[in-house]
Predict the 3D structure of the following.
Amino acid sequence: YLPDALSEINRVLRDFRTGDVFEMDPGLLDLLHRLHGLTGSSRPFQIISAYRSPRTNRMLHERSRGVATKSLHMVGQAVDIRVADVPLPQLRKAALAMKAGGVGYYPGSNFVHVDTGRVRQW
């Protein structure tokens, strides 16, 4: 990995609510790269949420039961995504097929959650 490139990725995937930057798991970047290839997409990922500071996560948890108190977003191991040219069910199916971590499906909010934690789905 190129340190300067990782620093830039960390900045891009920062908590957009607070501006806090955190070191993202390079394994998550590898997972995204593999997932993109698996879908055959020609479009970039749309990032809904990546790193979340504890403060942001606490606020979101208070507003929604769907936000974990110990979210992997807070340790740089999770990202919520969609891709313009890949239907959401197909993106979910590809992520599940990888068996590379957690996969959450949120069709009402139009995104799929992927993380580098243990293999599980919801």
